[in-house]
Specification:
2 copies of one chain form a homodimer.
Chain A lengths: L1 E9 L12 E9 L5 E10 L4 H4 L20 E8 L9 E4 L7 E5 L4 E3 L15 H14 L6 E5 L4 H12 L3 E6 L2 H10 L3 E4 L6 H8 L4 E6 L3 H8 L2 E9 L13 E5 L1 H7 L2 E4 L9 H13 L7 E5 L4 H9 L6 E5 L7
């Protein structure tokens, strides 16, 4: 038995910011599900900055998407058919390997169970999913925030940033937001951030960050690279930690060298630690992160904002708008009804 | 009772490479030694790249030298008078806080005992002293070399590099030297380095480093910054560690921004860890490092080269030649006779 699926496939590796022509929506036939597999329909597809790396022409992360291949992406999905003992039709799962499509046949092992009674389904792509785990584990492993320390977070109202700021507050740190609008900064304040800098309107970004961080910066959660990175690196305290989590400001010159000021003297003088973080390395610890995030959520310590677009057709444009800074909160695209019941 | 001392004092904060006019040799009167203090004469003064940071006009490490202040530096010294129970005249001590002078009154606490029977006195400024401890602790804390890993060391024949290469070999790593002459690379081979790159004659430094490291680079012990750093950062393996130990290639533009290619994408894709290391943070662990280095030395696993100049008058020029890459091995200046007996 086979099933029909509509899937976005890559037509070209973009240079710089992608265009909608970099993908093509095509009909595909799915075999199975075979023994141990399930058939599922996507309810929400995730839209994340890291996807830019997956479509780079250059060697990048393992898992680059080939021309003609289905675009990589995570989803919350509903099980339609199951040949795996853990899953029944009507169950919901979260997976980082669904792809930009409406239906998929997946191995039943390695999927995360989603409880629709606990939180909205899209939360499992947000604070209870990949961005939440990223914020938690990166702060746990690299950030190591101590009470009273100043933690600056770029893209502070984004999917990772909004969770990171709340974790910092829960750990007793002072959270400083950098974001692109007053509206986003107001939302950050509501989340508990102690101070904020609007990088689009600041007369001098370095001065503004200096004023928002009068005691210097102990931890820098860097989701952007670029000018924010430059301003922060000059204000690191002794023993500072820098999490390199994303480089979204480089999206328009993704495969070109990034030229500018380097900070080796600052790293040496501050004895700073700069470390790249990628959530896909930490699959074995998703449970640890999810438990911590669920506990914060149940205690009422986690607010979040979700930026929802509608229909599979919107995927390329939703992704492109994420790269150009127009989203607010975690970006998802709703494919099907939340429940068919 | 007072004593006469001749001391180099700072006359100006240099911009770029210092000149001999940045210091003045002057006669000073030493009081004491008071209770708990000793009077000592320097036998060897240490000459080290980190001293450039101490005379920067910019805020830098704690311990910057003020105009008119005695130039900072370590020494192996002989005790002449003692008002401290641990020390007697004729004992030898090592300290990182002697200064560029022939005599000093020092607190008796916090000095390291030197055994002239175990190794030549200048070894306590080299593989049994600050550079040896730096190599050992930086590799222990940040490098964490595993057998079979490729470790690239810049300034490989220098005071830190020559020890680092031998530690890497003892840990089962593959050591790759980058140095400025064939003579230095031949010496590195003799120390056990597996491969070497001459950065002055390589047609393309990146290609040469790529050929010397066919399996990529797992650990980068960076003593130089600059073009070697740039070439290595593009060849980091997954999970690579980068020790920022020195930035000697920036000596000529010390207080200016260092412009060039940045490597945040590479750090993210490799999930690399870049960390500044300064030995002065690790005083509590000098014993651990010294024991390990003494054990290697006794086992015959440590060779070293020392570049000895003579007389206090030579200090400024010896230091300047170190910054311009003309030394070979650990640079010291011999002030007095090794022993007056």
């Amino acid at each position: 038995m086979t099933h029909l699926s509509r899937a976005w496939v890559l037509t070209a590796h973009p240079t710089g910011i992608p265009t909608v022509e970099n993908w093509r929506l095509e009909d595909q036939t799915l075999p199975g599900p075979a023994d141990g597999e399930i058939l599922a329909r996507s309810v929400y597809l995730s839209v994340d900055p890291y996807m830019r790396g997956r479509i780079s022409a250059k060697a990048n992360y393992a898992g680059g998407v080939a021309i003609g291949g289905i675009m990589h992406g995570g989803a919350v999905a509903e099980v339609l058919e199951s040949n795996h003992p853990d899953w029944r039709p009507g169950d919901h799962v979260e997976t980082m390997n669904f792809g930009w499509r409406d239906k998929a046949v997946l191995k039943g092992d390695g999927l995360t169970r989603v409880d629709p009674a606990l939180a909205p389904l899209h939360a499992y792509l947000s604070y209870l999913g990949m961005p939440g785990r990223t914020a938690w584990l990166a702060l746990q492993d690299i950030g190591q925030v101590k009470p009273g320390e100043t933690v600056l977070i770029s893209a502070a109202s984004g999917a990772v940033g909004q969770v990171a700021g709340q974790i910092v507050k829960a750990k007793g740190g002072r959270a400083v937001a950098v974001a692109s609008s007053e509206e986003k900064l107001a939302w950050c304040k509501q989340l508990g951030y102690d101070a904020g800098v609007n990088y689009r309107t600041a007369e001098d970004l370095g001065t503004a960050i200096g004023e928002a961080c009068p005691d210097g910066i102990d931890v820098f959660f860097d989701n952007t690279a670029g000018p924010i990175h430059d301003a922060v690196m000059k204000r690191l305290n002794l023993g500072a930690r820098v999490i390199i989590c994303g480089t979204i400001s480089l999206a328009s010159k993704f495969d070109e060298p990034d030229m500018g000021e380097r900070f080796l003297r600052q790293i040496l003088v501050a004895r700073a630690r700069i470390q790249g973080f990628l959530i896909f390395d930490h699959v074995a610890r998703y449970g640890e992160a999810n438990s911590a995030l669920a506990a914060m959520s149940e205690a009422g310590d986690l607010q979040f904002k979700t930026d929802v677009e509608e229909r599979l057709e919107a995927m390329p444009s939703a992704f492109i708008s994420l790269l150009t800074g127009d989203n607010f909160g975690k970006k998802v695209v709703r494919i099907g009804p939340d429940s068919e019941s």
